[in-house]
What we know:
Layout: E1 2-7, E2 10-14, E3 56-61, H1 69-84, E4 87-93, H2 97-109, E5 114-118, H3 123-132, E6 137-141, E7 153-156, H4 161-174, E8 179-184, H5 189-205, E9 210-215, H6 222-234, E10 239-242, H7 247-254, E11 257-262, E12 273-279, H8 282-294, E13 313-315, H9 327-342
Parallel strand pairs: 3-4, 3-5, 5-6, 6-7, 8-9, 8-10, 10-11, 11-12
Antiparallel strand pairs: 1-2, 1-4, 12-13
Helix pairs in contact: 4-5, 4-9, 6-7
Amino acid sequence: xxxKQSQTGASAMTKSPTSSHPHFLKRRQVLAGAAAxxxxxxxxxxxxxxxxxxxxxxxxxxxxxxxQQWVSRIHKAANAAVARGDIEYVFSENTSNNxxxxxxxxxxxxxxxxxxxxxxxxxxxxxxxxxxxxxxxYLMGSSFLPKDDTPNFAVFDNYIQDASYLSGIIAGAMTQxxxxxMVGGFPIPEVNRLMHAFMAGVxxxxxxxxxxxxxxxxxxxxxxxxxxxxxxxDGGADILYAxxxxxxxAAKEKAVLAIGNVIDTQADYPDTVVASALWHFEPTLDHAIxxxxxxxxxxxxxxxxxxxxxxxxxLAPLGTFEGKVPEEAMKLVMEREAAIKAGDFVVxxxxxxxxxx
Length: 357
């Protein structure tokens, strides 16, 4: 794996890898029977020792490069905490699923206060490590809820359905063919809920819209995503929901529009990407840091900190499309955004696999 250390005022330092995986690997795999929870769940078993003054030692384990869209948001939040002086941060990227447990144990043995990462494909092994190091706090991306047998193992996921819904309102107002293509990686809860929220938003402004839904069976295969998007364009789609990299490339080549996910790629596609649903990991990480420092970290569901009312997601600025989205649609977006933040409007969380209609 490749290990780096982030320091305030200094560039990252790279150590020689003990095991290199330079190619992009699956961030997670389809989990049979996965049940993602929404409500916060408190478990017994606090890490009942407040940490000494000074920055926490934090380590992260990623199965893909930190440039990858989902992981990049975690990495960004960690570097922000470094800049504030709250943490010292090291990370491993391109860690294979087979190597994950070993790297996790190495960081635990090294005495890190908090270890973060994503264990969608290595759930059992990761929880076994946590059980072996009860004084270490673990905050892991997961499709499962916390368990009382690992009180130091909290979970999170990117519940950004609020911003996805708002981006759907814009897409519905922009489609002329009333035909929208959607390309995802795998039909797992974290993908499904965003697609459903987007579709619900579209129906607010274009209820008769037809959806073409496809999954490419990979977390990083831009050529396959691009070819799938081409097929949807040939099928009449004039807007594409770009859950994966490669979709916006197809949209650009065919002169149709796209909606982004997790990060804002409009700078790369100024005439293509109309809007994007952004994930902000800062509220999730900042709460974990606070709990670890206070000695009150426990096995909670941190997914709630990705909600819009917690500052965990937002709609990207329209940028190059400012003034090009119908005024009535933007008025509805602003009204619903305010209602979501106030708790007066709740976007449904639907983890079932979306289907073409």
